[in-house]
């Protein structure tokens, strides 16, 4: 992080066009978002509609997660931002910069040091604690959108717990391909009541939501929904008695940097040898395992 | 809940069987009314009198169903005959909660504690639709997911009844599809590829998935070739024989009514103009409209 | 296939920013000023204001300069800026009947009070490239302007706002009056009365505010109109076109199209609740308003009435206002055409959202792809093992019922896309 030349005690007020509130959003917006978040926490897995604000980052690129992070951020928070598990992914860099510049909050790549973690498509490998909040970016909050186009009808299905169409979608995969065909963004049943879209995290990460110590929040900016999984909540992937949920398999594979066989691995090609090799998707965790000090 | 065990022959009977007595009305409907429009002073007493159409000439309100009273005993087939616009389809849609009735009462002896089901919560109505009533539409596109497998269409009903074992669900689906004479080799084909008669039979198997005590059939053979019609009608009769399901059969075709129904009611302009044993109605129609219908039978 | 982890992100973004600036400036022969854009590309400025939902021609011009002319990017800049602004006042309801008209036509009536005023329009020009414009100089411009002002007796000095008023405010009576055609039709009892607003005095409803509340379907009319008013011109035109061509029920005539300046006022800020003093005039905005006339229906009392469609947007953007009126009416009808589906129309015409989500495909999707890879490899393995008796279960009804078998290559050929297609086209079965 660059050292700021501080004239004003609040760093973000030194920007030339300075008219931005702490963490960009005005207090009224933050309050509304927090209220909706509380409602979401009170009803695990239920999608709470909210009036999503426009941000300098494009819709579809993380405005939902960003609104949650900006509403929860205080001056003492430490923020980690990742995309596909990487801190250095361009989109993560861009979001982290916006957060830092508009709030002056400290940032980190070390999961253990963060109080707020905003992530796209992965849950960090390190187990999160009760004092940490995970914010996930959501492209499509409605798990039933696969089987029903209309928002009006999907709201009704959730109200009546009418989920047979979702089960039918899983069944069709079994009939055609011999197994459930859904990959990432695998639908889960939360607290035995609502089917929820966990975002396109790999199936590998689904179990990290179940009976977790930490709070997980989900923000969909474009679709304008917030939902949550409070700590110690049951999150069970949809499965049949005779066709169970299965994670991705990395049998016989290991990370080429840290040797890990129990993390989610990215596939890549070694430039020198042309061979397919694997490495930890959670780059910060990988480096930590190798004994590196993380910023 | 229905238990699905290994062998079809040993499948346990549905729980509602214990709660049914042959001499007690299974379904009772009182004052069922469906109105499209605000109504006005001149049409607000719709029960009385013969009307020239379902539409109030003053305010344009359509009274599709005007205070209908009828009942259904276990295992019997009630025919509902009338021409287009008589309100018979609307009536059945109200029973299945596809349309919201304007007023009236509907009770089922298998769930006495629920009282008037027309005013039940949407969760309760959904339970009734999934477990206690099956519906077969005239247009199979309304009753089926055309691009899913046929077994999937049946399976969806079983999932709604919380059956989450693929093996058992497939066995039950195969059993039902076999019962309606769909070749097992085609059980995973989508109904979009089937003929009209086959699509209706898939609908019937789907409607029977959870062994409901009541089946609603809305013009199910209309538009099919005569020989295909005959096959479907035979199937319906044999289902009633074997499973003891009570049915409401809606048709504008008196021939279909004659083949299937024990009792019949004749509807015109939203009201029931005559009802009784099918044989009696056909042999000795009292109401002039019924007479017209019967004499028009080729 | 290579899925290389992206590193060096910070440096890459910094370089990309510099490169973008380089491309914006490298071939500049003279600096394009914001004023030039505002004054000589006014229709583009109008479009951007309309899609950004902020009436600020200067900022719209700035956004266009920054975005190198990309209207979607410029609308995004405006919208993002707008969301940082505090809302200090809410204006009183404006009345386009008070419009200082630049252009006013009707396709339904040949003649009406005020007459047909073509105003500034390219509708009847021949679309031939004017190569002479390449050599245009400021002298040419001034010579034309000077001559034109003399011919039409317009004042010599350019006033602060861009339209040239023929008279000042007190001389307004010298202009012809342009009564609303819709009002005339209503007076004759031929048009449905307006809901809320002027036709029903005393019954003022708070309009829905799409920037403060999330849309829940079905949407109240005020919500629909707001979504349409800041919709993307192209998207709305396409949908309105579909409605006219047969994918819908709507082929109206234009009762009236007017373009001009409408005064805006706010309630006197120092009012202490209760007595409302004279509202304060704060300026005027350029608007395009279209009222279409649709075939008549029968209302509850059996009378036959014309049904109106309404379109309104910032600046001079006629095709958008017409499209808006068509779509507004189309959404009141029921049917299976896309332009009759409220969710379909309202959710897909917002430029910021549609551009954002389509563009988001440029973000890494390695995880979703990796997960699909895992599935496809598993499916291929399963298909290969099918001869050995693996696969979906066989119900024991005596007849072996296998699952449809496919060769491994055919299985790999079917994409997840095709599967998703089948799923979303399942019919409304229950």
Specify the overall morphology of chain B.
Answer: globular
Q: What is the CATH topology assignment of chain B? A: Rossmann fold
Mean of pLDDT of chain A: 89
Number of discrete domains of chain B:
1
Q: Helical segment tally of chain B? A: 10
Order of strands, widest sheet of chain A: 1-9-8-5-4-2-3
CATH topology of the largest domain in chain A: Rossmann fold
What is the H/E string of chain A? HEHEHEEEHHEEHEEEEEH
What is the share of helical residues of chain A? 25-40%
For the biggest sheet of chain A, the summary is: 7 strands, mixed
Quaternary class:
heterotrimer
Query: So what's the CATH class of chain B?
Result: Alpha Beta
Number of strands of chain B: 9
- The amount of beta strand of chain B, in percent, is 15-25%
CATH architecture of chain B: 3-Layer(aba) Sandwich
Major β-sheet profile of chain B: 6 strands, mixed
Rg of chain B, rounded, reads 19 Å
Describe the structure.
The complex is a heterotrimer of chains A (295), B (298) and C (430). Chain A is an alpha/beta fold. The N and C termini of chain A lie close together (9 Å). The radius of gyration of chain A is 20 Å and the shape is globular. Chain A has helices spanning 27-42, 63-72, 90-103, 151-160, 164-177, 203-206, 283-289, and strands at 48-49, 78-83, 106-107, 116-120, 133-137, 188-190, 194-196, 215-220, 225-229, 235-237, 265-269, 276-280. Helices cover 25% and strands 17% of the residues of chain A. Chain A has 7 helices and 12 strands. Chain A folds into 2 domains: 11-143 and 184-237, 3-Layer(aba) Sandwich (Rossmann fold); 249-295, no CATH class. In chain A, helix 1 (27-42) crosses helix 2 (63-72). Chain B has 298 residues and is of the alpha/beta class. Chain B has 10 helices and 9 strands. Chain B has helices at 88-95, 122-132, 140-143, 150-160, 166-179, 196-207, 226-243, 254-260, 278-283, 288-296, and strands at 27-36, 62-72, 77-81, 103-108, 133-136, 214-218, 246-251, 263-268, 271-277. Chain B has a 6-stranded mixed beta sheet with strand order 5-6-7-3-8-9, sandwiched between helices. A 3-stranded antiparallel beta sheet of chain B has the order 2-1-4, covered by helices on one side. In chain B, helix 7 links the parallel strand 6 (214-218) and strand 7 (246-251). In chain B, helix 4 packs parallel to helix 6 and helix 5 crosses helix 6. The longest helix of chain B is centred in the last third of the chain and has 18 residues, at 226-243. The radius of gyration of chain B is 19 Å and the shape is globular. By secondary structure, chain C is an alpha+beta fold. Chain C has 3 domains: 19-82; 96-122 and 179-269 and 278-358, no CATH class; 364-386 and 404-430, no CATH class. In chain C, helix 3 packs across helix 4 (57-66). The radius of gyration of chain C is 28 Å and the shape is globular. The two termini of chain C are 43 Å apart. The relative contact order of chain C is 0.11. The model of chain C is unreliable at 1-5, 161-174, 196-201 and 387-430 (pLDDT under 50). The interface between A and B is medium-sized, with 18 and 19 residues.
